[in-house]
């Protein structure tokens, strides 16, 4: 964890937050590593996406915010509703989730989607440093754009104030593409990370190194 700029933290949809999850979470907190969460094995018996999010909040003290609502669970898990774009996607079974279709949000999920999207927009408005979105949230939450949501989520992830949570089944390649997109969209690049502090072996003095091509070379050797 010491050498990472960001990480994807995996949880089991049926087992939830396990003891080793808590241990590694505390380590990531100690090293101040920005992270996003992926609730895996949504096709397993007993899978419960939102119960896992509740455990993240209760056990880990994480400000976990869902970016998706699963469509089905266990053997019926077949897609997700993207709460940022407000679209439903269904993965194609014939190619093991390599492709998907955008479909209308299922009627039986609409109330929960509205509730969870409201929670997302509230979290985004609260963590907008400019407070512009807070005004938009009170006037008309739906006026907050996709780009504005993603920009605030990225900053909040880098600041360790929000943990975006997604779901899927990696074994069946369901949800993996969305996680890779989230890595690019929300986790920091080296330019977003604070300068590294270390000891110069020649002078024994403490020095800092920013992520800058013009700075003196430095490297962290690790195994």
Amount of beta strand: 15-25%
Rg over alpha carbons:
19 Å
Specify the biggest β-sheet.
Answer: 4 strands, parallel
Lateral strand order in the biggest sheet: 1-2-8-3
> Quick one: how many beta strands?
10
Task: Spell the H/E element sequence.
Answer: EHEHEEEEEHHHEHEE
- Name the shape in a single word: globular
Structural class, by secondary structure, is alpha/beta
Outline the low-pLDDT stretches.
none
Residue-averaged pLDDT: 92
Termini separation (Å)? Answer: 11 Å
Walk me through this protein's architecture.
- The chain is α/β, with parallel strands linked by helices.
- 33% of the residues lie in helices and 20% in strands.
- The chain has helices at 19-30, 49-60, 110-126, 132-139, 146-158, 176-186, and strands spanning 7-12, 35-40, 64-66, 68-71, 79-82, 87-91, 100-103, 163-167, 196-199, 206-209.
- It starts with 6 loop residues before the first strand and ends in a 14-residue tail after the last strand.
Keywords for this structure?
single chain, 223 residues, alpha/beta, four-stranded parallel β-sheet, four-stranded antiparallel β-sheet, 33% helix, 20% strand
Q: Secondary structure elements and their pairing?
A:
Blueprint: E1 7-12, H1 19-30, E2 35-40, H2 49-60, E3 64-66, E4 68-71, E5 79-82, E6 87-91, E7 100-103, H3 110-126, H4 132-139, H5 146-158, E8 163-167, H6 176-186, E9 196-199, E10 206-209
Parallel strand pairs: 1-2, 2-8, 3-8
Antiparallel strand pairs: 4-5, 5-6, 6-7, 9-10
């Amino acid at each position: 964890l010491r050498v990472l700029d960001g990480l994807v933290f995996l949880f089991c949809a049926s087992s939830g937050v396990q003891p080793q999850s808590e241990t590694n979470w505390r380590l990531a907190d100690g090293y101040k590593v920005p992270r996003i969460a992926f609730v895996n094995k949504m096709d397993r018996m007993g899978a419960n996406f939102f119960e896992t999010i509740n455990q993240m909040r209760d056990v880990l003290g994480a400000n976990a915010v869902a970016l998706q609502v699963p469509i089905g669970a266990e053997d019926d898990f077949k897609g997700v509703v993207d709460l940022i774009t407000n679209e439903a996607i269904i993965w194609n079974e014939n190619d093991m989730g390599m492709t998907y279709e955008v479909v209308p949000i299922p009627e039986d999920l609409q109330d929960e989607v509205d509730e969870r999207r409201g929670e997302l927009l509230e979290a985004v408005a609260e963590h907008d440093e400019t407070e512009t979105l807070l005004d938009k949230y009170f006037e008309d939450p739906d006026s907050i754009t996709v780009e504005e949501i993603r920009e605030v989520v990225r900053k909040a992830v880098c600041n360790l104030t929000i943990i975006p949570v997604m779901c899927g089944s990696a074994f069946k390649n369901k949800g993996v593409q969305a996680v890779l997109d989230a890595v690019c969209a929300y986790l920091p690049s080296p330019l977003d990370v604070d300068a590294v502090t270390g000891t110069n072996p020649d002078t024994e003095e403490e020095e800092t190194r920013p992520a800058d091509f013009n700075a003196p070379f430095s490297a962290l050797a690790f195994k």
